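Margin note: ligand = nickel (II) ion.
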Amino acid sequence: MQAFYIRNFNIIIIIIINLISMGEVDQAFIQSIEHRPNLDTIEIEGIPLIDLSLSHTTDINVLVSKIGTACKNWGFFQVINHGVPLELLEKIKVAAKAFFDQTMEEKRKVKRDEVNPMGYYESEHTKNVRDWKEVFDFLIKDPSFLPASPELEDDEMRTLSNQWPENPPQFREVCQEYAREVEKLGYKLLELISLSLGLPSNRFNGYFEDQLSRMRLNHYPPCPCPELALGVGRHKDAGALTIVAQDDVGGLQVKRKSDGVWAPVKPTSNALVINVGDIVQVWSNEAYESVEHRVVVNSERERFSIPIFIFPSHYVMVKPLEELVNEGNPPKYKPYNFGKFNVARNRSNYKKLEVQNIQISDFKII
Ligand code: OGA
Ligand code: NI
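Resulting structure:
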């Protein structure tokens, strides 16, 4: 009986704390009850850690099979000995902090708008709830070309280009140098993924000639109500592959395929986090799935993360690869134009929309 009272008392206290913090923060950040994070620390099996170094004693087939298993079971893994110089990994984290530490006035000099989606932004929404973060985005290929509208019959194109801040000094150089190195890793991983699907290593190469890949610096400030808001709400990445550098704070969680539990991605020194995106899901006809993930925040420490999203050229028609489909395994998706998809998807990042934004499930053959 006493235990019953203590438990109810605890629940009442939590409700009161929630109500107090709800009054403090903008309602736009508050997740609906079913999407609020459980902040208890849990020790559970996490995503695989894969060593990419190939000595003459390790067989490439062993590595390919580890990658294939991780893609199949998790959609996520971490890599070490990835070839991205560790000094550069350190430098990009320092550059990210130096950029976000500046005044709002300074950051807003490179603010993105309805016309130019590159630059600084502090009010992105995921699934119509505002994320507790600020970001800086730039294109790997500058300029890049994208359809002007999501309408299929409209063939007008738009040129996207980067906005670079004057400060901090060296920011641009460090960002670009880091992006070049991670891009190389991205293509190496796509080759390994291709091999793991039983395809030639260069099978995906042709899709990236006019790549729309972009890099993002994420800053998650400490949050007064980490039990109500999220750094990034649950989502799947729309590209082919994402490569994320994170600091030692932690917060990224992956929805474990085996049981749907949110599994934390443990910060691992010198490692990069890799996840397959929607395009690999479609190309592989669902042999590999793009897995839902989110970022929880905390009330004490700010967090930085740096993803690179590897996107194909705008004119690529994304569809299950012919070699992987047959009578017994018919294509699960209708082809879609990546540029049009991307334009339609990004509309909802700016403001709340009445309808859910475009998803690959819209192209699913039932
Ligand atoms: C993203 C994302 C993860 C992180 O920006 O799409 O999932 O750790 N970020 O910041
Ligand atoms: Ni993501």
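The radius of gyration is 21 Å.
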